[in-house]
Amino acid sequence: MFSKILIANRGEIALRILRACRELGIKTVAVHSTADEDAMHVRLADEAVCIGPPASRDSYLNVAAILSAATITGAEAIHPGYGFLSENADFAETVEAHGLTFIGPTAEHIRMMGDKITAKTTMQMLGVPLVPGSDGELTSLEEAREVADKVGYPVLIKAAAGGGGRGMKVAQTADDLEDAWKMARAEARAAFGNDAVYLEKYMDRPRHIELQILGDNYGNVVHFGERDCSLQRRHQKLLEEAGSPALTPEQRDAIGQTATQALSKMGYRNAGTLEFLYQDGQFCFIEMNTRLQVEHPVTEMVCDVDLVREQIRLAAGEQLGYTQKDISFSGHAIECRINAEDPDSFTPCPGTVAVYHPPGGLGVRVDSALYTGYRVPPFYDSMIAKLIVHAPTREQAIARMQRALDEFVVEGIKTVIPLHRRILEDPEFQKGDYTIHWLEQFTAKPH
Ligand code: ADP
């Protein structure tokens, strides 16, 4: 096992990793930008190294500075968290080339899944069902037209290098196709420096259901069930549940088996998430994330597992030590992402937190790096906390989340807590009756 780990991230996820390390008796090294000198992850870590100015590209994405920090502190492994360098195959490779362990999958698998076209063809070969669409990259607008005619409108043009919902454009009819084609490519070129695109049928009422998996270095792969992340705004998740209100245990077992078999054949190791669109009883793979997800806590609550601890253990070369039949699911969990944003306009609201009082009590978990007097910097993601509840049934989890949201005090900055309250009391949400389009329609309604 490692004796010291560098955490190449900030905010709540840096704390989350730090907590797992501490319970394993592992020393921690925090890295931070000059804007984060007073951050909680810096205060709680055993050592902290400043790696650059506020802009992420100069600090949290600064590979040379992060590697120097690891070297001077004698860290043996680096946990990248999510975002920043977590899905950067070159970074994973460089870390390993310096004799350190990258806590995550191999650089080869990160690269493979980072290109969504390769990800889809690989999964298809391994027997995982896909969203109907083009066989790989589209080479011309004419080809896009042919494929669109075959699968039927509406269609989606997507960037091979896409992420965060960027480089994705819908064509409702044949008349829109040229614009969607041009816009998706231009956005992909600007955001990712790569304008390769592919086409998918635009599904009209799917749910976003994803599967958490873990693999060790010896070919053992298990899954920890699904998360329903259908509640999204601009393709960004806002509220997640485990399990999905739409799935039966038998459907979960079936997709779980398909996924674990595929990843075991690939020799996939460490944590990963397969994302699917689910409609009319069919799962269609869209992409795989080769890292820890923001929403991993809902899985932890229903499976009673510490996924970060598992990531560290597996990266240290330990075996899983359990099989699929040892994993059981208990109750229901919901996570609300609390963003420092205006709950109506969604404009970011950085600033000083005048009062911070998180909720507590039975079945309530708050993953956050906030404290009273903390200044939320304007340079990074606006998510400032995750509120997670766990209860025996979905109905009780909803009641518990409503109670916890009412207790949550964050003063001085605006947050989306009022929006979460409205979602939780909506009858359709309460019935579990929603698709990926539901939240956009809900937030557009006057209230
Ligand atoms: P990104 O990596 O940019 O997040 P994804 O491929 O994961 O892109 O898609 C993000 C979201 O976009 C999905 O969760 C879903 O809401 C929507 N989406 C993606 N593909 C389709 C599709 N074929 N039909 C309808 N919605 C889609």
From TrEMBL:
Cross-referenced InterPro entries: ACC_Biotin_Carboxylase, Acetyl_CoA_COase_biotin_COase, ATP-grasp, ATP_grasp_subdomain_1, BC-like_N, Biotin_carboxylation_dom, Biotin_COase_C, CPAse_ATP-bd
Residue ranges constituting the Biotin carboxylation domain according to the UniProt record: 1-444
Domain of life: Bacteria
Domain named ATP-grasp: residues: 120-316
Catalytic reactions of this protein: N(6)-biotinyl-L-lysyl-[protein] + hydrogencarbonate + ATP = N(6)-carboxybiotinyl-L-lysyl-[protein] + ADP + phosphate + H(+)
Keywords assigned: ATP-binding, Biotin, Fatty acid biosynthesis, Fatty acid metabolism, Ligase, Lipid biosynthesis, Lipid metabolism, Magnesium, Metal-binding, Nucleotide-binding
Entry-linked Pfam families: Biotin_carb_C, Biotin_carb_N, CPSase_L_D2
An annotated Gene Ontology molecular function: ATP binding
A biological-process GO annotation: malonyl-CoA biosynthetic process
Pathway: Lipid metabolism; malonyl-CoA biosynthesis; malonyl-CoA from acetyl-CoA: step 1/1
SUPFAM superfamilies, per database record: Glutathione synthetase ATP-binding domain-like (SSF56059), PreATP-grasp domain (SSF52440), Rudiment single hybrid motif (SSF51246)
EC number: 6.3.4.14
Self-association state and partner proteins as the record states: Acetyl-CoA carboxylase is a heterohexamer of biotin carboxyl carrier protein, biotin carboxylase and the two subunits of carboxyl transferase in a 2:2 complex.
NCBIfam families on file: accC, PRK08591.1
Function text: This protein is a component of the acetyl coenzyme A carboxylase complex; first, biotin carboxylase catalyzes the carboxylation of the carrier protein and then the transcarboxylase transfers the carboxyl group to form malonyl-CoA.
Protein name in UniProt: Biotin carboxylase
Species lineage: Bacteria, Pseudomonadati, Pseudomonadota, Alphaproteobacteria, Acetobacterales
